[in-house]
Amino acid sequence: MGIPSVNNKISRLLQVVVITITLFSCGKNQGVSHAQSTNSLAPIQLKVGAGAINPVGYYDPAPSFSWKIPADSTATFQSAYQIQVASSLDSLKNKADLWDSHKVLTDSNAWINYQGTPLTSRQIVYWRVRYWDETNQQSDWSPINIFELGLLDNTQWQGEWIRHPDTGETITFKKGTSKEFSNTLYRPQYLRTQFSGKPNVQKARLYVTAKGVFKPYLNGQAIGNDTMTPGWTPYKQRIETLTYDVTDKILTGNNVLGAILAEGWYTGRILSPQKRDVPAPYFLAQLEISYDNGQTQVITSNKDWRATHNGPIQMAGNYDGEFYDQSKEMPGWAAANFDDSSWNTVITQTIDPKVELEPKRHAPVRNIKTLPAQQLVSQNDGAIIFDMGQNMVGVPKVNIPVIKGQKVQLRFSEALEHDKFYVKNLRSAKVTDYYLPSQTGMTEYQPTFTFHGYRYVEISGHDTSKTPSTSWIKAVVQHSDFDVYENFESSHPKLNQLQRNITWGLRSNFYDIPLDCPQRDERLGWTGDAQVFAAPSMYMADVYSFWSAWLKTVREEQADNGRVPNFIPTKQNKHTKGASSGWGDAVTVIPWELYQLTGDKRILVDNFEMMTKWLDYHKSQSKDYISNMQSFQDWLQPFPEGEGRAGRRGDTDKSLISTAYYARSVEYTAKTSKVLGKTELAQQLEQLHQQIKTAYRQAFYDNDLKVIKGSSTQTSYLLPLEFELFDSNEKEVAQKHLLNEFKESKHHLRTGFLGTPLLAPVLQKMGKSDLMFELLFKETYPSWFYSINNGATTTWERWNSYSLTEGYNSESMNSLNHYAYGAVAKWFYQGILGIKPLVPGFKKISVEPQFNTKLTSAKGHYQTPQGKISINWELKGTHITVDLTIPKNTQAELNLPTIKNLVIRQNNQPILFSDPIPKLLPGRYLITGESISL
């Protein structure tokens, strides 16, 4: 959505503007009298859409609005709201000229759709909201918030795509024993144009994008903290654009607008080297300047720009790293008075109306934080190995001694193997940065157009006469810019480390799209990984807009027959041929689960057609309601019967998995149809679901519910139990079979990518949370703590990816930074803390913490659309204390079936009740009792 800031002058104005108008028209025929008192505090945390705050360059001309009641307000519930939207501050204070909702009787405080005058590109919109509480007392108006729209369609762009005239260099590859093939390597380009600025700039916006990745500059200064923009979309269908507020950067007189352009995902290779035919990178820019006297000035990318390949960044690729030649530095290249006469005139390309140019839908990747080196591991044969202390994603920032003409090499690894720098799991990705100094002494360097997944850095080629120090290197952590909550903590150090590992896996793989891994020659948006991790990630970070944006890409990549590629965006801008159950089912599972966590119906509206088309594809792969779709199955299940590649898919029958997911997709699409008022379709899908359920039961289980097709596995029972594919009178028998599977495995898990996320919800429903705690706290392989015992700081792709004693798993497909098995984090919140939505969006909340003697305490919180729910429980012997805060505008159902002598206090006053426990209203509660099960 561009840079989340507001116009600088407006910002300064808003700092001194205090809105005191409280007597506004509340509309006609509302049936509620005006309330004159304002005892309730004004709304807070105003957002538009999926979480944007005062965005510049916003993509949606019909956004939704959300807000929260302050925790310290006298209000308990909202009974009504009023939103005002205007084109100026004066209009907002006097008469909202775009939209006035008037007083709307509802407790809804989130996802309120704009219903006013149509909005247009560049428009700056001012809005505010107030609410009425349960006693009809009116709050103060909120502070005024702003959003500014970007260029909403291709017709708003006046310039042309530009690039250096050279077509690039031919590079020859030989893959294995196959024939040699050649591809074109496009070196990074430096682009610039000059223009004359006038005094008294009122507003200046830079609208910009690229086929490739770019870094913009204005008058010698880099614009923003973004990296690898505009990101990764299906480039033949849609390219995202960025908007930057550059009001304070325009000079009176000579100005220079410039950019560096590199291959990125658009032109750079995807997967291992292979023959490809892709066009060169291009750049597109439009700088619009408004002056106080009403004049405007537009500077666009066109034939007048100049370009060179001879800048210091000589090579840059996502997988292979960057090569920087200090001798080619061009001081002041993006500033006035630089001589660009030796540069080339660019060539241009007209904007294709078939390729949509759309403002970015979520915050771009940015440099988020910097980590210092923790240890200098070794110094041998002129190579120094540094331990950054954390497996993560980003680039190094070095300040090292160098010798003129002696090339410095930086290599990256996730772990060491007996002090050996290990890179085998990177496969064909070179993951190496080079720096060629032109002078001797200390030099600073940070790569621009690459990213690495690593913990260890090896530096060689430096001046070895100098004593190395950990101060020589820092790690710049990068990911899409969102808030990470860090909102769970327990009394168990390894459980806390697991939570940190999962969070770092989230950070590392949310790199514009949801990646599967960030280090090897892959880094793809695998749908199966996304399917199992989307909901857990929502508990850990503010990633709703991230997922919503990626789902648009998924919709664009879906084939006409409903097939969903296994990873998205797809390779080489083309659809892959495959589809997989459990992977493609992300298109039904993710929208429905996001709806449960947010209550936002738009996520269902936007994706409904995609969901129904996927059902069509499922049907095409089925016979007599049994799906025979290809499947990765229960990927990387431990101890498989098969060996090598044959064992990766696990032992659970393919059709059993595919049919179970067919049923789940039909179920979720039926529920979505009902929410959207499509009653007839919902009934048809409910009937189809029952037919699949009947066929599933008959095809895969005998009369005693023993598996009759394929092997009996934990997943072969977890799937139907969680997806409710057995009749109610059969569940107990199925549960016994599942428990027997655990008994035979000595209470270790035997699940892969699809089965593992189902362990906790199934066992909790069975009343077997004690078994889930046992699985969670296992120390030996396969288990989560096994990785921690072997030094993991992120979650792994395999349960046995690495061992301190034996080193890396011999398989080359072996990432130490995968988030799929981190899906267990959902149970930290829904199980250990016990926070679940009873209705979509947490208007009603279930609080059912799971106590166990393996923990003496656990605490955490979750930001619901209404506000923060927090819980802190402590266990001393059999005595339990729970500190619980319920947010405003919600109510909670407390379920503590294993606690006797229950006492609930609010404001230090006991609440008198008999069974059942009453619904808890917003507020803070202290709950005590004695456990009857520990």
Structure characterization notes:
The protein is α+β, with helices and mostly antiparallel strands. The chain has five domains: 8-149, Immunoglobulin-like; 154-360, Jelly Rolls (Sandwich), CATH 2.60.120; 366-480, Jelly Rolls (Sandwich), CATH 2.60.120; 488-832, Glycosyltransferase, CATH 1.50.10.10; 835-931, Maltose phosphorylase, domain 3 (Sandwich), CATH 2.60.420. 20% of the residues lie in helices and 30% in strands. The chain has 16 helices and 52 strands. Strands 22, 23, 27, 28, 29, 30, 33, 34, 35 and 36 form a ten-stranded mixed sheet that branches. A hairpin with a 4-residue loop joins strand 46 (857-863) and strand 47 (868-876). Helix 7 runs antiparallel to helix 8, helix 9 (654-675) runs antiparallel to helix 10 (679-700) and helix 13 packs antiparallel against helix 14. The protein is globular, with a radius of gyration of 29 Å. The relative contact order is 0.08. Residues 1-37 have low confidence and may be disordered.
